[in-house]
Each structure stands twice: as C-alpha cells, then as structure tokens.
C-alpha cells in the first residue's frame, strides 16, 4: 500500500526527515510515536504532498506507483487522506457541501460521473449514524465554532465518506476527552478493512488502547529508530522517551 525508501525532507533549508524507511501493507494499522520535534507531522505532510516541504532524497510509493512528483490534490484522488491535527475553519461552506464537492472531484479525476444525489444522501446518513453525528451538525459551516471533539469527529466523517486507501491520522487524539476519543476511535475501527491501511501519529498510548496497531514505530531526530508490536507503546508510556534517545545516540 505505502512504501517509503530513504526519505529525506526539509523545510526552509532545514533537514527534518533524515532517511525514513517504512512499509505499510493493506489491512494494517501502523502507529508512529516520538517526542516533540522528531518529525512525525512532517512525515504525514510529506506523504500527503504538502508543498511547504521539499523532498531532497528518497521515494514514496502508493500501490507500487511513485508519487514523488504528484501534487497534494492528485495524491488525494489516488486515495491518500490526511486528518489534520488542527483542522481549519471554512465559514460559509457547510459540512455537507464540502464533502459532496470532495467526493465528486475525486470521482471526476477517476473518470466517473458525479454520485447521484439520492445515493450521496444515503451515504451521508449512514456515515453520520456510524460516527454518532447529529444531522444539524452537517448543515453547519465547516469547523466554524466546532469544539475540538467536533472537529476531529468531522475529520473522521470525511474519511468515512471518501473511503481512502491510506488514511493518515495526525494526532487525532489531541484535545479530546475520553468520550470523544472513544467515538472517533470506534469510527476508525469500523472503517478498517483488508483493502485499506491506517497510519496513526500520536504522542500517547491511550489512543492505541482503542485503535490497536499491528506495528509501532518510534521516530526520533528524523529517523525511525525502533519498531515493534503494540507492547512497544506500553513500554514508552511506562518509561518515556529518554531510553530511546540514549539507544539512538549509541
């Protein structure tokens, strides 16, 4: 699904990623953890095609296709979804209109007709119910006046509607109380399948109690310095990151 080989990336001539190697197969959930400033959000932005970051070396493949030269929009149409840590507010554009436009633009890029209105409405109702979203919520302006939990739930709603091949969740748990965390995580779990893959970026083990990863990777100083199973997240929760830093500097 996703293959990253020796990825180096910089912003404003400062190197952030210093040789990332990662392989994510269909049906898998990978968690990426690490201390602040280790390059986690940069990695998610680079995979999604954020033009503020420059790839200086290495390759990114989606389903064996090199996407290095693809714009962010092309990557989205190919099936990459990024859930933002801080979703932006778009006054005047309702949640429903935003998602209709996103779906139909992707269909257009794939050479398909627009989704029929009745089919769209049915899908919106199904996914809103799945994520315990109130109907009134869908007619509000995108993220305007939303609480932290509402913004994150809206991101997962977009993911549910777009049905991406690769979903990257960048610190979806930040600012969420336990109830909101549970709803968001349940939504992600219900959307998991053998045809898609999920990369979860988080500081904390608590999210991984709800979204159980197949693999955990620790990012430090722009490199993946340790990988393991879900027990690695528990070890990090217990010991912190100092031992990882010491191991990495040996």
TrEMBL record:
InterPro entries: AAA+_ATPase (IPR003593), ABC_transporter-like_ATP-bd (IPR003439), FeS-cluster_ATPase_SufC (IPR010230), P-loop_NTPase (IPR027417). Gene3D superfamilies: P-loop containing nucleotide triphosphate hydrolases. GO terms for molecular function: ATP binding; ATP hydrolysis activity. Residues 2-246 form the ABC transporter domain. It comes from the Bacteria. CDD domains: ABC_FeS_Assembly. Keywords: ATP-binding, Nucleotide-binding. The keyword Cytoplasm does not apply. It holds the Pfam family ABC_tran. NCBIfam families: sufC. Belongs to the ABC transporter superfamily. Ycf16 family. This is ATP-dependent transporter SufC. The lineage of its organism: Bacteria, Pseudomonadati, Bacteroidota, Flavobacteriia, Flavobacteriales.
